[in-house]
């Protein structure tokens, strides 16, 4: 009845129709359910808000009624607001904007798009642009590579090159270009044989072998995460007998630069997943390319222009400060209570309608420089995509009574970020650098470190500079953030001097940039998995989450993961299969698949037919 009345008044949306199906065999129950709701809504005077009805012009509606269904078509575009313009936010905007009747608005607090990869920073002199650290594109970044092809900017990346690993005592290891080796070997063996460790004894390297057991069990499934997430990666290594030296010189630096925190503060599940994706998927996985300029200039600028041409609206320097929902939550709660007292069948019909009471209807934002007394800008939304990192997501929930009413979202308040510090030094003379990209260990306790020859990577952008342009990035760097800019520059230069010797010592810094990202990157601390979002919220049916924080089965990490989750969220919004348009990772190599299947069979056997009940390797260790 309600529907018919609405159709007559020409103001019913497709969403409403979808939520009120005239199911065969249930006409009486449907009428009863609707009647139950009407008094609540009318008495509160919120008919439109509860049902999320939006006025639509008569001409834009086509309604047809068959025996059992009412179908409606509206020409109004779906309004999607994306909070955050990093890889995740841009990815969802990109996918949605290609799919027709959707209007996307991307709101970002920073002045330039890119999120953690943004280049919206200047040097002390104010004349040179700097980035929030260097970002590599590893062998398995198939979806990002496909995007670059689509945008016709595949030359935005360098070729593959050897990489160095340094300690204060000099060069310690060289990672070759694995795809250029004579033969591609089974994964694990290729990396072990071709990596050139200059000082690490074979006896220490051999102690990595038991980790194969953990890699065989950890298949990235939710069950595997549950088993390994509460253990720290360091504990896992200790229990499996990894030597102290191998851990300190190879594994700890890898975790510090890959997951931005030391092994004792990182989930073993995250470490296993990350290492498998970046290093072990195939022999070639660890080959890495870098941008030929600031990523903001060579990738994000053309990408954003392409999206603007498809009518995506970008609101930079604008912070999201709150949300509105469609109806009074008390009404939803009352309806919920009413539903609880009805039969199961009526419950299933009514529950979605009650949930509508907590749909987000608008995003409130505040442009940089606005006075506290200025009213926020209001963006009406049919869908809201949260594309922010851990610390920002936690803050949004803490500060929003609407979001924090839901237990599902309140758990995001447990998420944390860890700090990163990026420095770019412009020197007065050239300095010889054996490798353009390098990782380090042994400088500051618990702090990860990488350095890059920017002039070499960004060639020819800095050819006019008188000397070298070197970047030193520090991860898990809370202990360094409070230093003054000039002290940080002095420290970075001193660290480089130790590695590069007299050449570098003789050079003077003529300009520098210091970029601090306090709590900027996601922290995969032990036990964090249970607090992470899924792509689609269950509590707020029109809210979605993207970014490298989101749980996904794709198996990728970092920029690639953020990009993939963006496509997955767009699929969810458009009711497409989750994997539509996503390039999956290649299958496990035969020996890995065999190992995983063997472990799984043994677990199933010991669990008397149920793998989940079988013991885990983690159970034997703790
Ligand atoms: C120094 C450094 C080096 C890295 N190296 C690599 C690498 O080599 N390879 C790799 O793949 N990855 C690397 N990463 C990780 C990579 O940057 C991230 O995985 C990726 O950028 C995450 O993208 P995202 O979209 O999930 O989130 P983010 O990039 O964090 O984007 C979130 C956006 O949300 C915005 N935001 C937050 N709160 C609000 C609000 N209230 N209102 C509006 N906007 C808001 C922020 O301004 C930001 O733009 C590195 C990161 C750092 C910091």
Describe the protein.
The strands form six sheets. An eight-stranded mixed beta sheet has the order 10-9-8-18-19-20-17-21. It has a five-stranded parallel beta sheet with strand order 12-4-3-16-22, covered by helices on one side. It has 622 residues and is an alpha+beta fold. α5 runs parallel beside α24 (558-573) and α9 (211-217) crosses α25 (590-606). 47% of the residues are buried. The chain has three domains: 2-70 and 327-355, no CATH class; 78-153 and 162-174 and 293-317 and 368-584, FAD/NAD(P)-binding domain, CATH 3.50.50.60; 178-286 and 587-621, no CATH class. The model is unreliable at 1-71 and 349-356 (pLDDT under 50). The longest helix has 18 residues, at 27-44. The chain contains 26 helices and 22 strands. It binds flavin-adenine dinucleotide. Flavin-adenine dinucleotide binds next to α5, β13, α17, β17 and β21.
**Total count of helical runs of at least 4 residues:** 26
Overall pLDDT, averaged?
Answer: 86
CATH topology of the largest domain: FAD/NAD(P)-binding domain
Shape: globular
Low-confidence stretches: 1-71, 349-356
Q: Any guess at the CATH architecture of the largest domain?
A: 3-Layer(bba) Sandwich
User: Helicity level, as a percent range?
Assistant: 25-40%
Which structural class should the secondary elements be placed in? alpha+beta
Distance between the termini: 61 Å
Report the C-alpha radius of gyration, rounded: 27 Å
Order of adjacent strands in the largest pleated sheet: 10-9-8-18-19-20-17-21
Bound molecules: flavin-adenine dinucleotide
Question: Largest beta sheet, briefly?
Answer: 8 strands, mixed
């Amino acid at each position: 009845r309600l529907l018919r009345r609405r159709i007559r008044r020409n103001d019913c949306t497709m969403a409403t129709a979808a939520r009120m199906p005239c199911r065969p065999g249930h006409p009486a129950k449907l009428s009863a359910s609707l009647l139950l709701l009407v008094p609540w809504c009318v008495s509160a005077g919120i008919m439109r808000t509860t049902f999320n009805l939006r006025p639509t012009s008569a001409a834009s509606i086509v309604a047809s009624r068959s025996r059992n269904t009412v179908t409606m078509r509206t020409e109004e575009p779906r309004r999607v607001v994306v909070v955050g313009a990093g890889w995740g936010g841009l990815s969802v905007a990109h996918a949605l904007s290609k799919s027709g009747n959707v209007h996307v608005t991307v709101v970002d607090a920073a002045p330039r798009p890119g999120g953690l990869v943004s280049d919206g920073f200047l040097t002390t002199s104010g004349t040179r642009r700097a980035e929030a650290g260097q970002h590599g594109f590893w062998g398995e970044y198939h979806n990002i590579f496909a995007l670059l092809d689509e945008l016709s900017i595949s030359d935005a990346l360098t070729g593959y090159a050897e990489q160095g690993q340094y300690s204060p005592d000099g060069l310690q290891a060289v990672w070759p270009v694995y795809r250029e080796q004579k033969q591609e070997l089974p994964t694990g063996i290729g990396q072990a044989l071709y990596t050139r460790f200059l000082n690490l004894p074979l006896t220490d390297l051999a102690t990595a072998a038991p980790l194969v057991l953990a890699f065989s069990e950890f298949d990235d499934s939710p069950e595997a995460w549950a088993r390994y997430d509460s253990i720290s990666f360091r504990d896992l290594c200790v229990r499996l007998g990894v030597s102290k030296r191998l851990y300190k010189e190879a594994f700890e630096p890898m975790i510090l630069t890959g997951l931005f925190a030391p092994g004792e503060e990182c989930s073993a599940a995250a470490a296993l997943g990350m290492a498998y994706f970046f290093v072990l998927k195939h022999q070639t996985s660890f080959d890495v390319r870098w941008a030929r300029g600031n990523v903001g200039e060579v990738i994000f600028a053309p990408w954003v222009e392409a999206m603007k041409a498809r009518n995506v609206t970008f609101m930079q320097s604008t912070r999201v400060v709150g949300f509105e929902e469609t109806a009074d939550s008390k009404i939803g709660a009352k309806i919920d209570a009413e539903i609880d007292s009805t039969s199961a069948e009526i419950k299933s019909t009514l529950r979605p309608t009650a949930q509508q009471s907590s749909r987000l209807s608008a995003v409130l934002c505040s442009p940089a420089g606005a006075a506290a007394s200025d009213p926020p800008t209001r963006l009406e939304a049919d869908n809201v995509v949260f594309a922010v990192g851990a610390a920002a997501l936690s803050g949004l929930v803490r500060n929003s009574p609407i979001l924090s009413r839901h237990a599902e979202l309140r758990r995001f308040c447990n998420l944390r970020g860890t700090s990163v510090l990026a420095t770019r030094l412009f020197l007065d003379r050239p300095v010889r650098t054996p490798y353009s990209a390098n990782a380090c260990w042994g400088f500051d306790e618990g702090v990860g470190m990488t350095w890059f020859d920017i002039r070499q990577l960004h060639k020819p952008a800095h050819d006019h500079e008188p000397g070298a342009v070197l970047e030193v990035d520090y991860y898990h760097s809370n202990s360094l953030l409070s230093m003054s800019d000039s002290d940080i520059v002095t420290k970075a230069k001193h660290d480089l001097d130790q590695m590069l010797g007299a050449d570098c010592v003789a050079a003077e810094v003529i300009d520098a940039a210091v970029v601090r990202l306090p709590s900027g990157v996601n922290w995969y601390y032990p036990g964090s998995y249970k607090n992470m979002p899924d792509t689609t919220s269950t509590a707020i049916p029109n809210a979605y989450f993207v970014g490298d924080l989101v749980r996904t089965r794709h198996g990728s990490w970092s920029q690639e993961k953020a990009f993939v989750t963006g496509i997955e969220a767009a699929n969810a919004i458009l009711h497409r299969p989750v994997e539509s348009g996503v390039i999956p990772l290649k299958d496990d190599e035969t020996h890995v698949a065999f190992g995983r299947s063997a472990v799984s069979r043994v677990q199933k056997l010991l669990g008397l037919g149920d793998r989940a009940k079988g013991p885990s390797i983690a159970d034997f260790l703790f």
